[in-house]
Amino acid sequence: MTISLSKGELIRENNFIGGLWVPATDGAQFTVTNPATGEVVTNVANSGPADARAATNAAAQAFPMWRDTLPKERAAVLRRWHALILENANSLGELISLEQGKPLAEGRGEVAYGASYVAWFADEATRIYGDIIPQQQRGKRMTAVKEPVGIVAAITPWNFPLAMIARKIAPALAAGCTVVAKPAEDTPLTALALALLAHEAGVPAGVLNVISASRDHAVATVADWLEDSRVRKITFTGSTPVGKYLARESASTLKKLSLELGGNAPFIVFDDADLDAAVTGLLAAKFRNGGQTCVCPNRVYVQDGVYERFAALLSERVAELKVAPATDPAAQIGPMINVRALEKIARHVDDAVRHGARVLTGGNRLPELGPHYFAPTVLADATPDMALCCEETFGPVVPLFRFSDEAEAVQAANDTPFGLASYFYSQDVRRINRVGRQLEAGIVGINEGALASEAAPFGGVKESGYGREGSKYGLDDYLSIKYLCQGGLD
Ligand code: NAP
């Protein structure tokens, strides 16, 4: 795939620290590849602890100035950043597709989605209210004000290279925090492009710092932030094991944490569901980004009475999905991110078939398209002893489990350590009320497969993490409450 930008425009290969583009301290680099072809896109800085420290130094120096800006000044900078992101939507969409592999329409969609958080938090910056606490004693005035927590370290995954980092940087800057950020090894270019646009938008030097690192450098690089008491918060999106590791390792400096972790979303189709709507909702929820999203249904529970009909309707639609590189305008499913991802998907399908699953469509790799393609797959007769029931597959595979009554479905849906998204389809208003309350998840889709919105609180319960991104709650994670008690006023 060629990209319509010249490198000089949006692609940056160095770290962005203190308002400057600088190579890694030791000059190291790693290679970014196009997952559709395996071809090299470019080389970027391979940072280590010294680079992480330099970023923190810059963020620490900028913090008092940024903290003391007026909320409306921060909002104005964020609005300019938002406008620049949208002005560059096509180029950014191409960049996302180039390094991440999603179809171009989805790449552009991600730009709009990520930008919506920037606009949202520009507005929220001007609504950081405190409280005047009703007087408890004569001569005393008690107030509560909200202050930025300080330096925020943002660590993000590869599946949404723009949206995941935008929805951390935007609230942090809105709150008056400064940021050090490390995107995923597979997708550093979009994050660096965002830093470039933030700089152009007027984000002052040191307020936003982005460094890239390869997987084998990530631990030592991030460790510098974990151990540095000047970094007051970690905001992380990624897998549950890494989230737990960050929680443990940041305990020595007791940082505030937001953890957006893995999911294992159930999707329940009751006998009384509108089946066409359920199929459409499942396709939207499951096959976005080729099944590589944290809110993708991973386990689909279908009630006895509609099981075979739903399976047939679904398989027919899934078999029609167009698998192709991002450059093909008809593409609906792109390549998986890397070989590790592809192997996990193949392992889940093989294991399911060994345990008795029936392949209704797909089930195979597509090497003729490139190194990382897997056919959209529907498996019938899935059972709890299959690996795909308890592990996130993170690929285009739909396993269909059978159930006979509501209590059984809810029990199975909740039988997981995870609790990010869940979905169900039913037309019975009392059942909707009951099941909506009973599902253990931070997000519940009811007769709806597309749930994300900057106005909604996004986040999980159980081992899917804590904290919320977006919505009126999203800023709280970047603020601390200070209680001021003034005496001698009588
Ligand atoms: P990951 O392996 O946990 O990596 C996420 C980020 O953490 C990457 O930047 C990664 O760097 C870095 N990292 C990995 N190990 C680290 C360590 N020991 N110390 C410091 N940093 C480390 O997750 P992923 O495979 O990229 O992303 C997929 C996961 O993210 C899935 O579980 C998905 O459900 C979850 N996710 C959750 C949400 C949500 O909102 N809840 C949204 C999207 C994705 P490298 O890239 O260099 O390894």
General description of the model:
- With 490 residues, the protein is an alpha/beta fold.
- It has two domains: 7-261 and 464-484, Aldehyde Dehydrogenase, Chain A, domain 1, CATH 3.40.605; 265-453, Aldehyde Dehydrogenase, Chain A, domain 2 (3-Layer(aba) Sandwich).
- Helix content is 38%, strand content 21%.
- The protein is built from 14 helices and 22 strands.
- The protein has helices spanning 49-67, 71-87, 89-100, 104-125, 163-175, 188-201, 215-227, 240-249, 275-287, 307-319, 339-354, 387-390, 406-414, 429-438; strands at residues 15-17, 20-22, 29-33, 40-45, 131-133, 141-148, 151-155, 178-182, 208-210, 231-237, 256-260, 265-269, 297-303, 358-361, 377-380, 397-403, 418-419, 421-425, 443-446, 461-462, 465-466, 479-486.
- The strands form six sheets. Strands 14-15-16-13-12-18-19 form a seven-stranded mixed sheet, with helices on both faces. Strands 9-8-7-10-11-21 form a six-stranded mixed sheet, sandwiched between helices.
- Helix 2 (71-87) runs antiparallel to helix 5 (163-175), helix 3 runs antiparallel to helix 6 and helix 4 (104-125) runs parallel beside helix 5 (163-175).
- The longest helix has 22 residues, at 104-125.
- The protein is globular, with a radius of gyration of 23 Å.
- The protein starts with 14 loop residues before the first strand and ends with a strand.
- NADP nicotinamide-adenine-dinucleotide phosphate is lined by residues 155-159, 164, 182, 184-185, 215, 218-219, 222, 237-239, 242, 245, 260-263, 294, 392, 420, 460.
- Its EC number is 1.2.1.-.
- Pfam families: Aldedh (PF00171).
